[in-house]
Specification:
It contains 14 helices and 16 strands. With 403 residues, it is an alpha/beta fold. It has two domains: 214 residues, Glycogen Phosphorylase B (Rossmann fold, 3-Layer(aba) Sandwich); 175 residues, Rossmann fold (3-Layer(aba) Sandwich), CATH 3.40.50. The strands form three sheets. Strands 4-5-2-1-7-8-9-10 form an eight-stranded mixed sheet, with helices on both faces. Strands 13-12-11-14-15-16 form a six-stranded parallel sheet, sandwiched between helices. The longest helix is centred in the last third of the chain and has 24 residues. The chain is globular, with a radius of gyration of 22 Å.
Length: 403
């Protein structure tokens, strides 16, 4: 298959997300993949050049060193607001050009604004258009006043897409409620590379803990991912002074609240108990998770998080680590209680963290965690399901076109 993937975030710097895992594996299976992305973390002019030129990379990979992704970043102007508008034009022109030369079998969309470009090109050339929904996208728009417009566009794309695919039932219900055709709506879950994400040997764990000045008897809570305002790290930090000195917090990632969290650590006098690693290479994630004792998914429940099932949840579980999570509806539906995730209300956070001091309790929960992902969440199997579904979508479109 020849596939075009459209997203409105940075393929290289952000993630890895569902699409990285799926399409890198599909490229290994011999499919040709072209990705169009957007430089979401640009420094606005005049801190950087006004024009962000068109860029193209070959053999891009993020989760699999054998992957072969052709990444194209259409030109834009580095002025907030205007950058998005300009990118709609440049994405359309790029897609128009690629469609003639590459002749894609399908366009898979992860975007709102630039997703309209993909939808227009797909309809114009009778190309199957697939909306792969991994978030309620309009809720991620930082400007609240723009969210109603983004919601309208998102709904239009859901209605007009030939097929919609979701990472969990909650998002499928969301898509259908916004107009997606239930007869062409499918769920393919999120997964994990079970060969990569597994508990590491003691030598590796000791080395990682030594690097970050973690003592042998310290109990480490770890959060991995982008630091959104709703990630819940500040909530954990605020109760840390009430917990034993041996409890430490490791924050692996960068993001919007990074500076605020550093200031909070200083204010609470816990700089010696909070380890900020910044963003780390993806291949190091398994070592960092293995070196910790308990993983965190204690996000605030809002319109953005209520249906999410982050990939890191499966990566945590695959490393045989118990997870403390807020009662996110989508996550609870996808990974029911009793499978290594301890779902709690905010008032229970302190007592729950105190309970993890017991090593036997952590081991018991960790074993259940690994058992669950082995039975339900292998990327290899999920990719084959995704491949089969795309192939069916393409053949149905061809059949309808030839009829």
């Amino acid at each position: 298959m020849k596939l075009i993937v459209i997203q409105e975030t940075d393929w290289i710097q952000r993630g890895p997300h569902q699409q990285h895992h799926m399409f890198e594996r599909l490229s290994n299976l011999g499919h040709q993949i072209k990705v169009l992305d957007f430089e979401i973390n640009y420094k606005p002019w005049p801190l950087s050049p006004l024009i962000a030129p068109r860029l193209e990379w070959e053999n891009i990979n993020k989760t699999n060193t054998n992957a072969n992704i052709n990444l194209i970043r259409p030109a834009t102007i580095r002025i907030p607001g205007i950058a998005r508008i300009v990118s709609i034009i440049t994405f359309y022109l790029e897609l128009k050009k690629i469609t003639k030369t590459f002749q894609p079998d399908a366009i898979i969309n992860y975007a709102v604004s630039t997703g309209l470009c993909g939808l227009a090109i797909a309809k114009l050339h009778n190309i199957p258009f697939v909306f792969h929904v991994i978030d309620a996208l309009h809720t991620l728009v930082p400007q609240k006043w723009l969210q109603p417009l983004a919601r309208m566009i998102e709904s239009l794309i859901l209605i007009k897409a030939n097929t919609t695919i979701y990472i969990n039932q909650g998002l499928k219900d969301y898509g259908i409620s916004h107009g997606a055709n239930p007869k062409s709506a499918f769920v393919i879950r999120t997964g994990v590379d079970l060969n990569m994400f597994k508990i590491q040997d003691e030598t590796t764990i000791s080395s990682v803990r030594a690097k970050w000045h973690i003592k042998p008897d310290d109990i480490v809570l770890i959060f991995v991912g982008w630091l959104y305002p709703f990630s819940g790290i500040d909530t954990v930090m605020k109760i840390l002074p009430k917990l034993p000195e041996t409890l430490k917090l490791m924050v692996v990632g960068s993001g919007q609240t990074e500076n605020e969290l550093h200031l909070l650590a200083n204010k609470l006098c816990i700089t010696n108990r909070v380890i900020f690693t910044k963003q780390q290479p993806y291949n190091d994630m398994v070592k960092l998770i293995s070196a910790a004792d308990v993983c965190l998914l204690f996000s605030e429940i809002n319109s953005t998080t209520q249906n999410i099932v982050p990939i890191k949840a499966y990566e945590y579980l695959a490393c045989s680590k118990p997870v403390i999570a807020s009662k996110l509806p989508g996550l609870m539906q996808d990974i029911p209680p009793g499978n290594g995730i301890i779902y709690i209300s905010p008032n229970d956070l302190l007592q729950t963290i105190l309970s993890i001091v017991d090593a036997e309790y952590r081991i018991h929960q960790g074993n259940k965690a690994r058992d669950y992902v082995e039975q339900n969440s292998d990327w290899s199997n999920l990719t084959l399901s995704f491949e089969k579904l795309l192939d069916n979508i393409i053949h149905v479109q061809d059949k309808n076109f030839n009829t």
